[in-house]
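Project outcomes to date are best conveyed with an example. Our students and postdoctoral researchers have been running inverse folding experiments weekly, and each run begins with a structure described purely in tokens. The record below, which covers 484 residues, was selected by the lab manager from last quarter's runs and is presented without edits.
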């Protein structure tokens, strides 16, 4: 059960059903209350019409036994005088409640004026709205009060008991003083309509909720089907470790389709990263094999023939191994996302420092401070100078200038330059354009790759182009300190 309701499909279905249930209950309650109010209002209007009709007859001095509203066809009617005494009532009225008095049989006036028990049979509910109906208006003989009071009650006429809506209207007569007419209209229609509405709701609401739950379950399942496909494929990729596989992309333009595309992009990036790591390991192993084999050969020869030991060659191979190991370690740290230090570095001073002692290198630099690692930036400049000296005929020129919010360090040589088609490839790891060149002279092909990675980690760029003298031009652009 917990697994079932732990699914998005089940939670969506339950949530939609609960929302619809709350909305239906609220709407049903509003409908029932509105229906009851409207039907009660109609019954009150009918009762008021009957009460005013009787009051109009009383206003023109119609005798009680001639009143047309007392036949009981339009509902129960009571006429009460100022003392609350019943003076006339509908024919066959057996019981009544909700009006000024519960009497159903008119009582003659007491000639002694003793009215002590006139209200002894009054309505026991004590509702103020069920009083005599006297509005307190100042009325002239023959005038009917504008105000009408309403109350709910019940009455039994000729054995039939029903609930009624009563209206009380006051009339000032010429010969009988102030009288109050209570007339009732049946509430059977209101009760019947409310019962019918409740029955429909009790039957219809559960069916509607079942339909909503079923439709939501089906629609949610159909919408989440691609997600299950993505999950299965990702599980298969994890089990097989085959990063060349891709998850299915729905032919839609919704969030799930975007999720599938993003997942495939992530898989592609992961595959490229793994391939790059494999290539890196393979290339590193290949590059390390040569100096290690050379060093081993020299040591084996020295062990057998000490007089033939090439000590200078062994030292060179050892230094080459040391530089290659340092390059590999730096690349590993850069690939791991190592962030450079936030120290301020003056590129002009750094350029002069790295150029010192290098023959054929000239520096033309203006102060330009950047934020980063002095060691890593020095490594970039050293790699660029080594590359320039390796390909230059006579000289290498280093310039530092400010350009907008950036510091630009340029290294140019007067060599043969780099073909436009190769200006991006030279920044790949272990790439050497001259395949026939000696490894001892050409290095391992990591210098420019390291330089670009360091530039990117410092928020800058490193590009290759053509120098004014016809050789290669490398431009390092970094944000000035405070402009990162």
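After processing, the design step wrote out the following sequence:
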């Amino acid at each position: 059960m917990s697994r079932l309701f732990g699914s998005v499909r089940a939670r969506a279905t339950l949530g939609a059903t609960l929302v619809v249930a709350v909305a239906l209950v609220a709407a049903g309650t509003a409908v029932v209350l509105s229906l009851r109010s409207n039907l009660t209002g109609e019954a009150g209007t009918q009762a008021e019409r009957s009460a005013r009709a009787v009051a109009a007859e009383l206003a023109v001095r119609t005798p009680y036994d001639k009143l047309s509203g007392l036949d009981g066809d339009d509902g129960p009617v009571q006429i009460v005088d100022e003392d609350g005494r019943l003076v006339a009532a509908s024919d066959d009225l057996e019981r009544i409640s909700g009006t000024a008095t519960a009497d159903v049989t008119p009582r003659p006036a007491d000639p002694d004026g003793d009215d002590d028990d006139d209200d002894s049979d009054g309505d026991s509910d004590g509702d103020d709205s069920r009083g005599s109906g006297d509005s307190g208006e100042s009325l002239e003989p023959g005038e009917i009060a504008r105000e009408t009071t309403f109350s709910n009650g019940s009455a039994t006429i000729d054995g039939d008991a029903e609930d009624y809506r009563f209206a009380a209207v006051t009339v000032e007569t010429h010969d009988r003083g102030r009288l109050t007419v209570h007339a009732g209209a049946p509430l059977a229609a209101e009760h019947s309509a409310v019962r019918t509405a409740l029955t429909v709701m009790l039957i219809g609401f559960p069916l509607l909720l079942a339909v909503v739950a079923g439709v939501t379950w089906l629609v949610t399942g159909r919408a989440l089907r691609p997600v299950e496909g993505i999950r299965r494929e990702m599980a298969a990729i994890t089990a097989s470790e085959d990063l060349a596989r891709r998850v299915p992309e729905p032919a839609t333009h919704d969030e799930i389709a975007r999720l599938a595309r993003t997942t495939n992009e992530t898989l592609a990036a992961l595959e490229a990263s793994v391939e790059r790591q494999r290539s890196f390991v393979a290339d590193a192993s290949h590059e390390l094999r040569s100096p290690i084999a050379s060093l081993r050969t020299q040591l084996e020869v020295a062990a057998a023939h000490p007089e033939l030991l090439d000590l200078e060659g062994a030292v060179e191979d050892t230094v080459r191994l040391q530089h290659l190991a340092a390059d590999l370690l730096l690349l590993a740290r850069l690939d791991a996302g190592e962030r450079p230090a936030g120290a301020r570095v003056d590129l002009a001073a750094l350029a002069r420092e790295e150029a010192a002692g290098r023959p054929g290198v000239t520096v033309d630099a203006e102060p330009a401070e950047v934020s980063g690692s002095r060691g890593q930036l020095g490594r970039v400049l050293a790699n660029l100078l080594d590359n320039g000296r390796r390909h230059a005929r006579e000289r290498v020129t280093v310039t530092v200038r400010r350009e907008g919010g950036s510091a630009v360090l340029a290294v140019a040589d007067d060599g043969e330059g780099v073909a436009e088609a190769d200006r991006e490839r030279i920044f790949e790891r272990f790439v050497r354009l001259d395949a026939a060149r000696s490894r001892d002279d050409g290095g391992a092909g990591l210098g420019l790759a390291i330089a670009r990675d360091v530039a990117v980690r410092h928020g800058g760029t490193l590009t290759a182009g053509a120098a004014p003298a016809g050789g290669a031009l490398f431009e390092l652009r970094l944000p000035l300190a405070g402009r990162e």
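The chain has nine helices and 13 strands. Residues 343-479 form a domain with the Heat Shock Protein 90 fold (CATH 3.30.565.10). The training component of this project remains on track.
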